[in-house]
Design brief:
Elements lengths: L1 H27 L5 H4 L6 H10 L6 H12 L14 H36 L4 H15 L2 H15 L12 E3 L2 E3 L4 H34 L2 H8 L4 H30 L2 H6 L5 H10 L3 H29 L2 H10 L1
Antiparallel strand pairs: 1-2
């Protein structure tokens, strides 16, 4: 297990380094922030001073070398617009995004797995067919359209839920969270539901397919032949075995929820990193864009690493196969 963990850590470091290069070159090749930061009526001398002050007068290779040296110590640059460390801006907004992503995944898991399990056990029933039809809608409907519909129905027409903002927050271990207050939960309900819809549909279909496959296996037939109760057959012999692919997908989708919450945060004015990224792109705030992308990549890598470890614990054949490949 130790060798497996060390190998995964080495791969993670390599991926992070490669992504740092790609992100830096990609973002720093787009646009010139001086055009937005300096008064259009400024003369060439003033523009040159601003360019030098931001370090944009150096060759790209030298800029990247400086970036890597600073990044090794945790410094991903200062925001051109706010003149504060870019990491600080992201970390200030990150709790809101993580809370939204976690709430969306809780909704998707709590509803998607039971519905998928039911649809897999009773695929030809009316309820099973209705669940699958609903999952197709969840895949098909655009996130921005669903968000607007939710606002129109539950905020404008019914007046039940607020349409924007995060609501009241309280400190939990020094981190502001909104799910511990009634007002915060009311603000969280619609954006979390909107963000969860696609993942919910995905989990329904994955769980249904895995359940139908597991139900045909010999060990399930043998358990039923022994006279075990349906609850034990489902809970021990079916659900336990289908959790391996489900845990993997949940981990990967959690990363994508964090990364792609931008649309939902924009629709509901949720004060997270997605909204910060949009504002930074509009202002060509390069350090914030680069820092955001690297933080998200780092989160993806960390989640993938945890998923790999959990996968190996659930299925020891993963460790054995990796060890055999290494030899």
């Amino acid at each position: 297990m130790l060798a497996f963990t060390i190998r995964r850590l080495g791969q993670s470091v390599f991926v992070l380094a490669a992504m740092a290069l790609i992100v830096f070159l990609g973002v720093y090749a787009i646009g010139n922030p001086i055009d937005l930061l300096v008064n259009p009526q400024a003369d060439d001398a003033e523009r040159a001073r601003a360019t030098a002050a931001l370090g944009l007068d150096k060759p790209v290779v030298e800029q990247f070398a400086i970036f890597v040296a600073r990044a090794a110590s945790g410094d991903l640059g200062r925001s051109f617009v706010y003149n504060v460390p870019a990491v600080q801006l992201i970390l200030d907004k990150l709790p809101a995004t993580l809370e939204l992503a976690a709430a969306a995944m809780v909704i998707a898991i709590a509803i998607g797995i039971p519905l998928g399990l039911f649809a897999g056990l009773r695929p030809h029933s009316f309820a099973g067919r209705a669940i699958m039809a609903g999952s197709i809608l969840g895949f098909s409907l655009p996130t921005f359209w669903v968000g607007l519909v939710l606002i129109m129905v539950f905020s404008v027409e019914l007046g039940w839920l607020p349409s924007n903002g995060r609501g009241e927050t309280v400190l939990l271990l020094g981190v502001p969270v909104s799910f511990l207050t009634i007002d915060g939960l009311r603000h969280l309900a619609m954006p979390a539901t909107n963000l969860a819809l696609f993942k919910l549909s995905l989990l329904i279909r994955l769980t249904r397919a895995s359940t139908r496959e597991a139900a045909l296996q010999d060990y399930v037939k043998f358990a039923r032949a022994k006279g075990l109760s349906p609850r034990r057959v489902i809970g021990v012999h079916i659900l336990k075995n289908i959790l391996i692919p489900i845990v993997t997908v949940i981990g990967l989708e959690l990363g994508s929820v964090i990364a792609f919450a931008i649309v939902t945060e924009s629709i509901f004015a949720w004060p997270g990193t997605g909204k910060l990224l949009i504002d930074s792109i509009n202002q060509l705030d390069r350090p914030v864009i680069v820092a955001y992308l690297l933080v998200i990549v780092g989160i993806f890598i960390a989640i993938n690493f945890v998923v790999d470890v959990l996968y190996s614990l659930l299925d020891p054949r993963v460790r054995l196969g990796a060890a055999a490949a290494g030899h």
